[in-house]
Design brief:
single chain, 195 residues, alpha/beta, Rossmann fold, five-stranded parallel β-sheet, 7 helices, globular
């Protein structure tokens, strides 16, 4: 493996982060306000993602439920991809395309928020969850990348779309982690003040 190739990954990642900073700052700030508003009103956060993005949804729910960087009371957040037994039962019942939507139907209520994470934006299971969230009068925050046209078309005017301006899945996922960190830090600042 060439050291130059490794260094190019670092350069590409840093360049995308700097390019995306101005484009994504406002939607991230809006998402922080929306997530905080849902939590402040006694609602909960549901999170889901396709494939490897499911781990990012779990990361977000874990940071809210436990802690991010500072001690605080746990916040009500649930990752819909975290329970293998539930996913297996739902897959057996109707396939994985409806697994998240069925959980949104079971756990979601008006005023709750659904965070969806998908690098490609064409995930049938994530799209079905968005539709179900709208049926339940929930807010949606979507972390996507590339064109993400199917997700864009499914979002309502009150939803927030944070679309990483890249087609490269590895770079999109790197920024999704940074965005999740920004969201969690912003929520903590709103709860606890600046540190």
């Amino acid at each position: 493996m060439s050291v130059e190739r490794i260094q190019q990954h670092f350069r590409d990642s840093a360049a995308l982060q700097l390019d995306a900073m101005d484009v994504l700052s406002m939607p991230i700030a809006a998402a922080i306000d929306t997530v905080f508003g849902a939590l402040a009103n006694g609602n909960k956060i549901l999170a889901c993602g396709k494939g490897a993005s499911a781990a990012d949804a779990q990361r977000f729910a874990a940071y809210l439920s436990a802690r991010f960087e500072r001690e605080r009371p746990g916040l009500p957040a649930l990752a819909l991809s975290a329970d293998a037994s539930v996913l297996a039962a739902l897959a057996e019942d109707g396939g994985l395309d409806s697994a998240y939507a069925k959980q949104v139907r079971a756990h979601g209520h008006a005023g709750d928020l659904l965070l969806v994470v998908t690098a490609t934006g064409d995930s049938a299971n994530v799209l079905a969850a968005i539709v179900e969230a709208h049926e339940r009068e929930m807010f949606v925050v979507a972390l996507t990348g590339g064109v993400a046209s199917r997700i864009s078309g499914a979002l309502a005017d009150t939803d927030i779309h944070i679309c990483v301006p890249s087609e490269r899945v590895a770079r999109i996922r790197e920024l999704h982690v940074l965005i999740i960190h920004c969201l969690c830090d912003g929520i903590d600042v709103m709860l606890l003040g600046e540190d």
